[in-house]
Amino acid sequence: MKATYKAYFVYYVLISSVFVNAFEPISTTFVVGLGVAAVGRKIYNYVYESCDSKWIAFNSTGLEVALDRKLFGQHVASRVIQKAVTGFMNNKNPKKPLVLSLHGWTGTGKNFVSQLIAENLYKEGMASSFIHQFVSTAHFPHLSQIENYKSQLQQWVKGNVTNCPRSMFIFDEMDKMHPGLIDCIKPYLDYYENLDGVSYRQAIFIFLSNAGGEYITQVALDFWKAGRDREEIKLQHLEPALTLSVFNSKQSGLWHTSLIDKNLVDFFIPFLPLEYRHVLLCGMAEMSAKGLEPDQDVVDQMARELVYFPKSDKIFSVNGCKTIGGKLDYYT
């Protein structure tokens, strides 16, 4: 919010204080004071983000439209995320928090999806004070400090859910997290009504990881070699083996984790590798986002100079759509 609005708020409180003190009788001062306090709270909630329906309101249609128009080449992820988030938000009495684990190569849209969810749940989007993002290499870099990290993470989750039950926690680079660390939050993801008086059932936890990317790519490649449309790929073609792959991968922060062993992750969501046609769509969308007139020739030139794999067929973009913003700056 703009600083001027906050200044008005402070000014109003000061004026209100003078107004209250102008009355002599204690009873009158008390009654007026209560009224001023109530109005003051309303103004405060208008100016400053609060954990209420003014600042947190799920827009199911908005999420559906955003996934359909902005997320390219991810029909499986789009469908699962829309249903999972909508179902959870419409449930007035969930039995546990929503836990999503997003998997796939870099640049396929995992972080972007987290952003879309945030934008359609919190008025402030990713800038909301109720969204908490952790990056493994930045927040948990040292194996020797893992016990301290566990304690800090538990305190952070508990403190923020206490402050706002509808908090969202995003854990990026799960494939780089030290195995065993994430297990410290297992109690908060379980089916407990509350722990020490705090209920975690309205919170959302999202894990982002490159782990399982090889398996997902192989399935997509097999479909391509068999002449099958990639839109035929369904969640059941990927999720069971993906779950097992992540659980058994020592390069994953979810290696042998109790979160999987106890079935606390609601969905393992695969993000497919992106083809040339998807890169074109990303490029056109990026030009629009930059305020430029989308130019098919410019985007095509940029897309052709990206690296694709496998070398023999050059089907999938190595970096997905991740580097497109910078590349377009060069071509425009």
From TrEMBL:
SUPFAM superfamilies named in the record: P-loop containing nucleoside triphosphate hydrolases
Residues reported in the UniProt entry to bind ATP: 104-111
UniProt name for this protein: Torsin
Record localization: Endoplasmic reticulum lumen
Lineage: superkingdom: Eukaryota
Any one of the GO BP annotations: protein localization to nucleus
Domain Torsin-1A C-terminal: 274-331
Family, as annotated: Belongs to the ClpA/ClpB family. Torsin subfamily.
Major localisation: endoplasmic reticulum
One GO MF term attached to the UniProt entry: ATP hydrolysis activity
Species: Oncorhynchus mykiss
Keyword Ligase (UniProt): no
GO cellular component: endoplasmic reticulum lumen; nuclear envelope
Signal among keywords: yes
UniProt xrefs under Pfam families: TOR1A_C (PF21376), Torsin (PF06309)
